[in-house]
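Predict both folds.
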Amino acid sequence: MLQKLIDHSPDLMRLRDEGFEVEVKGGYLLIHHIPYVNHSKEIKLGILVSELTLYNDKQTAKPNTHVINFMGEYPCNNDGSIIAQIKHASPNQLLFDGITINHSFSNKPANGYDDYYHKVSTYSGIISAPAKSLDKTVTEKTFKVISDESPDSVFNYWDTNSSRANIHMISSKFFGQKIAIIGLGGTGAYILDFVAKTPVQEIHLYDGDEFLLHNAFRSPGAASIEELNMRKSKPEYYKAIYSKMHKNVITHPYYINEANIEELGNLSYVFLAIDKDSVKRSIIEYLIKMNIPFFDVGLGVNIVDNSLIGTVRVTTGTSDKHDHLFNRISSGNDMDNEYATNIQIADLNALNALFAVIKWKKMCGFYQDLIKEHNSSYSINDSHLANDDFAA
């Protein structure tokens, strides 16, 4: 992937051809072997670390910011005084394994930087000039080729969104997770949309239904007439979409039952987006036994006075906290389940999915979780959000 990006990006190609040590890692551009002078007037080597803005997986775009990061001590003039004109911040922030930015610098041209060659060569020149004045043999242009040794990503292209926000290390909390979404109606499909944008290892899709016309009006994206006429299973329909982004979308075009429930045994988290209470209870009991956390979603909408009212619910269950589950989740007659009505609206499906995904991310440590609620319900007509069933 690195070689393709360099070959199709004139700015990166120019950096490489002039001898800079170029590496792309975790959605960042790294330039190794940058000489600088430290406070003790010693010549050291640092690494420039820049956000990386791309048009696609093969070509860079104009840099998103004029700020650049640096790994090393603060660069100084040849007399040991700091280079004050580029001073910005000293965050000492861990971006991802092995990459900690110690400082950031700001040097902004009137119209920003034209490309990454312009940005890197400018900062390199400022930082390296004092070292070169002390030792004429010092150079940042070693012509050393950095091999692309990064582990295989679960994405088909770099996640430059995380690198632009400097949250790659926080996003790494999802690494290795195996997620299942059981039920791909409106809410389950939106859960997939959000989960597919995280670096989880695998996403398992369970549903025995076909993707039909009514599904198109309560799911993310827009299906074509040709796609609807194909009558694919929901897992296969959604895999065709989301495998464009995430490599490991795994389909199970059937329902979970007693015969195949053990397929869930090695999962990290499960999202339950199904209405049939009798099936749901057996799945919940199995997940509790196997110590697999899960999130059950529910959407109940009714017509009152020619308007819609209703509630959106997310209930979390773990092996440590599950005494509340069947007070919140119907487990008897499906017809008595207030969350099993046929009225579904895309925006409410998306909201229901968002509540569930945010709770999952809180449990993973991506978001801070102060109250550890295990049940949340949002009432549409009065905009009331109620949190209950807190973990000890």
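Second protein follows, with its predicted structure tokens after the sequence.
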Amino acid sequence: MRYILIVILSSFLSFCSETKPIGDIKIMDPTVTKDLQTLSTAKIFFGHQSVGYNIMDGVNDLIKEAGNDSLQVIEMKKGTELPPYYFAHARVGKNTEPDTKCDAFAQDIHELFKNNLDMAALKFCFVDMRADDDPQQVFDYYKSTMDSLKKQYPHTRFIHFTLPLTTIQTGWKVPLKKLLGKEISGFADNMKRAAYNRLLKKYYKDDPIFDLSAVESTYPDGRRQSFEVAGKTYYALIPQYSSDRGHLNTLGRRIVAKAFVHVLAQTFRSE
């Protein structure tokens, strides 16, 4: 009995150390201002769902803080007229049905933008990949869609997104569940997302990739929010970045938006 109590206490203390404190974070800096200015002469389309709206809210936050009104963020709707340069975005497809997002994204590229884009990106949501889903099947459909678009629009750079993560269960029950071999909330889902992300990063290693999962799981000082299963390390969304275990709060959206804007600007400058 004494040994079991020691193991439980040790596991609990180890788990508590996995959720790390966050100090003061400085988001705005000269790099952000420069990146926003770079994108003000680009034509961009971003297809997404709810976390995408979080990210675009973050982009608008940065624009306001930088005092840069030259980058025009536009939510695409029926009949929307585009200015010469824009950062357009739109809701695409249905959550839990990633194939519909691929189809809607391709349709928007064909019908709304045709051959008038510098960059485009499609983001899946965390609900598009959970424990019971097949990463290979989802990736194969995405790959087929994107490879077709790349052939049809060779002058458009397609930026690939890793899947967003969710937080993992915390509290005193976690070390007990580990000891008893029971499922811990968030582990299996994030492991499947990691499998999809490995497929994407391997196949598109020569393309621009926005590693959303890495940004969501990385603290400002470089530490990662992680967990281990069978000796392998996996990553999770930092709780302080989220409003509900999956969507981004004000801090999280600004951190992600800063990283996304930087990848877009780097890609545009490389043209």
